[in-house]
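My current task is to audit a protein record that another person submitted. Alongside the sequence sits a line of tokens, each denoting a local backbone shape. Where you disagree with what is written, explain briefly why. This is what I was given:
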Amino acid sequence: MLDFLKNTGSWLKDNSDLLSAGGALAGGIGGAYSAYQQGKALDKNYKLNLDLLQEERKRRKTADDNLKTAFANSTYAKEA
């Protein structure tokens, strides 16, 4: 059993460049996947904010239209 561990240590020492390259590759793939997920989250957040903005604009337009209609039907508009 100890001989096996000695050979494993030797193999790791001899192939350290390969292991470093594999680690760098795995890190690069992980980073790319993380950036992709972050992009999806940002897009979802943007769409949510856009929907909220459109709802707010619609609410304000309705309020302004109601105010204009109420003023047009009031006695103040007829006096002016």
In short: The chain has a mean pLDDT of 84. Helices lie at 2-14, 16-72, 75-79. DSSP finds three helices and no strands in the chain. The first helix runs from residue 2 to 14.
